[in-house]
Amino acid sequence: MTKDLNTGLRFGFLIHDVSRLRRVVVDRALKPLGITRSQWWVLAFLSRRDGMTQTALAADLDLTKVAIGGLLDRMEAAGFVERRADASDGRARRVYLTRAGSKMVITIRENVEQIELQILENVSEDALNQAAATLLTIKETLLELAGSEAEALGSDPEFMT
Q1: Which of 35, 91, 98, 156 is the most exposed place for a label (fewest CB within 10 A)?
Q2: Whole-model pTM?
Q3: Where is the HTH marR-type domain (predicted)?
């Protein structure tokens, strides 16, 4: 069966709009913590995969090596993360949450919990599960289409599910 390209395009724009609006609402909820979107994204990624290489973190966040370096400099100065040399590759640096970073992750989760419940209050559990399954299928297809480029960018299918 042929799919309507306009429906697919509208779906893509809708995903983008939902993601953008969610970030705006979450940013507002986290503003009292004095943490930026870039910082809470770093903390979120590290909370799920602590010890990522700086390069993989940059790729996952869609940042340049220079941008992630400056961001991590500021986060290290604030005491949220620490960088260590990779044991097997002296050129690579791994990024780890500090105790303060782990505490901030907990605080972020507490601040975002009510917002997440509000965002999803009009969506049934079944509809949410179906939407998640659909998005996961689309993501898997995109990872296949990206192929080696997804690997080079550091995309980890397990991490993002």
Answers
A1: 91
A2: 0.75
A3: 1-144
